Amino acid sequence: MSKALIIISHGSRSQDAVAAFTEIVDLVREKGEFDQVAGAHMEHSKPSIPQAIEQVAQTGAQEIVFVPYFLYEGIHIKEDIPHLLDEISRDYPDIRFKLAKPIGVEPVLAGILVDRAKAVE
């Protein structure tokens, strides 16, 4: 079964932010865990979520896992993204859609915050 991963960002008008997100997507792709890895943005940037879905669907994805590149389970995670994916999935009846949790609270993040704080001393 061909599995794709679409990493979802909020999107940004900042080209630096978009470039950093693209770098994360590339790092995940290099891990080689999925047949395809794509990035998508909710707003302000391209590709949009529907565009990314179309891209991986056209290349044979049978399952798409969506991972929000968000820290917390706010409205976008609880309502907006699930609603959008539910609507779009109707156009792709042969593809299984799965939504993962956002990054959330992870011990590794505490270490990163401490490292950033120490870097300015």
Question: How do you describe this structure in short?
Answer:
This protein has 121 residues and is of the alpha/beta class. The protein has helices at residues 15-30, 49-58, 75-89, 107-118; strands at 3-9, 36-41, 63-68, 96-99.
Question: C-alpha Rg, in Å?
Answer: 15 Å
Kindly state the number of beta strands. Answer: 4
Helix % is: 40-55%
- Measure the end-to-end span: 50 Å
Order of secondary-structure elements: EHEHEHEH
Q: With helices defined by DSSP (H or I, 4 residues minimum), what is the helix count?
A: 4
Strand content: 15-25%
- Report low-confidence residues grouped into runs of 5 or more: none
**Structural class category:** alpha/beta
**CATH architectural category:** 3-Layer(aba) Sandwich
State mean pLDDT (0 to 100 scale).
Answer: 95
- What does the largest sheet look like? 4 strands, parallel
Assign an overall shape. Answer: globular
Strand order of the biggest β-sheet = 2-1-3-4
CATH class: Alpha Beta
Domain module tally: 1
CATH topology term = Rossmann fold
